From TrEMBL:
Record bears the keyword DNA-binding: no
Residue ranges of domain AB hydrolase-1 in the record: 42-248
Keyword annotations: Hydrolase
Name of this protein: Proline iminopeptidase
Keyword Oxidoreductase assigned: no
SUPFAM superfamilies in the record: alpha/beta-Hydrolases
Pfam families reported in the protein's UniProt record: Abhydrolase_1 (PF00561)
InterPro entries xrefs: AB_hydrolase_1 (IPR000073), AB_hydrolase_fold (IPR029058), AB_hydrolase_sf (IPR050266)
Lineage: Bacteria, Bacillati, Bacillota, Bacilli, Bacillales
Length: 250
């Protein structure tokens, strides 16, 4: 289990879950909420790092957003900077997947001096993945109709907690190359439920203009880029493009 820590910063109080020993490493996702169960992505890092699994603004018990713009990627990385400073670290590692990886790119572009290295998985440097037929988010994807139905449930004020859990489960199943093996993949407890207000801001305010493609060559933070060959959210071509665009990646 992860230990809970409330971190007082110049930008408010943030809830983090901490585990492991070693070099400090920050993990978060743009619109997920974590708890003491950790998360499948963050858990392996605890064998070599002291991992801080961060609930961003509006997630868990972290400070609320008084303005919608505080949910943006640029404001979120400023919050992460405030957390790093409050913890007393000069630099740390950042690791994120999906929109967490996109947030990492914004972090490295905005505050390169604060990062020793970075891990970016299943991400994209622009909103082009939304138009790729291999992505469930594209209108011409065979998965898109079902995805929209699930989003209605996830964001509904009338849906029960159980209905929302089942919708999140079905959303995950759309991402699995072998859905029949779900029980094997997810046999350990984990966390990471969707924060609707953060998802809405990303989807309707930030994503339509998101494009860091031209800035990638300015990011010199050593980065490990990974992606699944059958990723149905951000297809592997977009991770290959990130790797090609970053000067110091593998």
């Amino acid at each position: 289990m992860w230990g809970r820590q409330m971190i007082q910063t110049s930008r408010g109080t943030f809830e983090c879950f901490v585990a492991g020993e070693g070099e400090p490493l920050c993990v978060t996702h743009l619109y997920s909420e974590f708890n003491e169960r950790g998360t499948y992505f963050a858990d392996p890092f605890t064998s070599r790092f002291r991992v801080y699994l961060v609930n961003l603004r509006e997630a868990g018990q972290s400070v609320k957003a008084t303005e919608n713009e505080q949910l943006s990627m640029k404001e979120s990385v400023r919050d992460l900077e405030a957390i790093r400073e409050a913890l007393g670290y000069n630099r740390w590692v950042f690791a994120g997947h999906s929109t967490g990886g996109m947030l990492g790119l914004v972090y490295a572009h905005s505050f390169p001096e604060s990062l020793t290295k970075m891990v970016v998985g299943g991400a994209a440097a622009s909103n082009a993945y939304m138009r790729h037929e291999g992505s469930m988010y594209a209108r011409n994807s065979p998965l898109n109709k079902r995805l929209k139905e699930l989003f209605i449930i996830i964001k509904s004020d009338e849906a029960s907690p159980e209905e929302k859990r089942e919708a999140n489960r079905a959303w995950t199943d759309l991402s699995l190359y072998r859905p029949a093996q779900r029980a094997e993949y997810f046999k350990r407890p984990s966390s990471g439920k969707v924060v609707p207000r953060r998802l809405d801001y990303y989807s309707f305010k930030e994503l339509p203009h998101f494009n860091l493609t031209e800035e990638l060559n300015c990011i010199h933070v050593p980065t490990f880029v990974f992606c699944g060959q059958h990723d149905t959210q951000c297809p592997v071509e977009f991770s290959e493009a990130i790797h090609k665009g970053l000067p110091h990646s593998e």
